[in-house]
């Protein structure tokens, strides 16, 4: 099951930077562009698993710090000529608060 989870205020993420959120499925990098768009991707480059959260944000791509692959922040796709994809995470901003749609534990009724 997936639920929207509030992770903090947009201003907690620097422009052209990222913050990392730990989840049961792995770390998610949450990026803020220069025009204040928010994107979230699993924090592993499809090339060699580099930490995308440590990369440089330019426009709507992030440059992996290990081998300079560029990853589209919206789709998670590597840009040509590179090939591969990291999984995007649905995100939204409501009243300045950043929300991610993340998998949560199933709720079990006891009785």
From TrEMBL:
Superkingdom as given in the UniProt entry: Bacteria
Domain Rieske positions: 5-100
UniProt record, GO biological process: nitrate assimilation
Molecular function, one GO term: metal ion binding
UniProt-listed PROSITE patterns: RIESKE
Swiss-Prot/TrEMBL keywords: 2Fe-2S, Iron, Iron-sulfur, Metal-binding, Nitrate assimilation, Oxidoreductase
PANTHER family: 3-PHENYLPROPIONATE_CINNAMIC ACID DIOXYGENASE FERREDOXIN SUBUNIT, FERREDOXIN-RELATED
Protein name: Nitrite reductase NAD(P)H small subunit
Species of provenance: Paramagnetospirillum magnetotacticum MS-1
